[in-house]
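Appendix B, example 12.
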Amino acid sequence: MWQRSVWLGWALLFATGSPSPGSAQTAVAEEKRPLVFVITGESNSGGVGLNSDATPAERQPRSSVVILDLEAEGMPLVPMQLGKNNLRKHVGLENYYDKYHGLENGLANAVEGGVLRDRSSVYLVKTGHGGSTIAQWQPDAPTGYWRQFVERTEAVKRQLDRDAEWVVWMSLGINDAIAGTDPDLWQRHVGEHLARIQNQLPGARVVMTEFQSMGYPETNLRIRRLADELQGVESVETTGVPLSDANHWGYEGLKQVADRMLKKSFLNDR
């Protein structure tokens, strides 16, 4: 669990400040580290926000978010574009890549709005799969979801010129709740999964979505416990976030969730 601090507001959290003389070189070096977002989990990590609801500017290629192109040989890093490369190889949504988007739209809006101070661009890799349960993310699961997670994040590492700063946004738990997975077992297995993620991505900060807007109180409770107990893990509550259906955020909802996750991603140091 990160050290909690009093929330002073979105603008203050990301306000540019002068580092102390003793930390100036460290601050400059840290700022130059590539910032990579990894979005993972079940269908809300892919997203069902309608591209038709997005503004013309949001549908253009956006260099503010440089995404791993999962369809191209070698998985190069390219400007993100809704309907083109933002929803590829996501089980359950792979045939709707031209129709939907997820949290990446809100992320791009935030970067372009200067929320991340002097970062004009960040990197992104999407690793989620619709309908997935925590059992399907086990390293030995026949789905191969964990293997793909490793392959995709390793592809990013190979293309960066130095070690990255990792932020993981995870939305997982609805399918296990529907399936009736034992909550104690789910919490334990998710904790183990988070440990694997942080081992694969050194220093990663993980932010998990809760699901108040959909319901699932027991799942929300377990997610909050994980955030309380585990180092480098936070969660965001989603009360009042609009839905597109019973279990998914739509265009506006995804932007609201992205804003909440971004605030928690840098709770103490921006």
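Confidence is low (pLDDT under 50) at residues 1-30. Residues 183-200 form the longest helix (18 residues).
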